[in-house]
Design goal:
By secondary structure, the chain is mainly α. The protein has a domain of 30 residues. It is built from three helices and no strands. Pfam families: TatA_B_E (PF02416). It comes from Novosphingobium indicum. It is found in: Cell membrane; Membrane. This is Sec-independent protein translocase protein TatB.
């Protein structure tokens, strides 16, 4: 902070001894030390007050962010049932039953997809190799 070198400090000490005198020098040094200590104590107190204000401001900012995130989470998630909802009688859900296709109908075979004209052979749909059957999915 203050750039005081050894030569400058020696010059201040020589001037202080000449002006104050060697007899009163210890008393002057004690007084200067007390003042410097008080200044350090006041600056430390001031610095700690500023640091506390900054921490409080950051804490309030973090609490505000936490509240906003908490509200966003609460809005995006479904609400859990309360104790009152748990005590209310509930009706069991009915299972969904799909109707099975009639058994007496046979699916109609579809013609095989046509490839290139040179590879196509003239076979009837009754040929088991060419007939494709599309069966309905098995019942659950």
């Amino acid at each position: 902070m203050f750039d005081i070198g050894a030569s400058e400090l020696l010059m201040v000490v020589i001037v202080a001894v000449v002006v104050i005198g060697p007899k009163d020098m210890p008393l002057a040094m004690r007084t200067a030390g007390r003042w410097i200590g008080k200044m350090r104590k006041i600056s430390g107190h001031f610095r700690s007050g500023i640091d506390a204000m900054v921490r409080e401001a950051e804490l309030e900012e973090m609490e505000q962010k936490w509240r906003e995130q908490n509200e966003a989470i609460m809005k995006s998630t479904p609400q859990l049932p309360t104790a009152e909802d748990m005590q209310a009688p509930s009706t069991p859900a009915k299972p969904v039953v799909q109707a099975a296709p009639p058994k007496d109908e046979e699916p109609s075979p579809e013609p095989a997809p046509e490839m290139e004209p040179s590879n196509r052979k003239d076979k009837s749909a009754s040929d088991p190799e060419q007939a494709e059957f599309h069966l309905p999915p098995p019942p659950p």
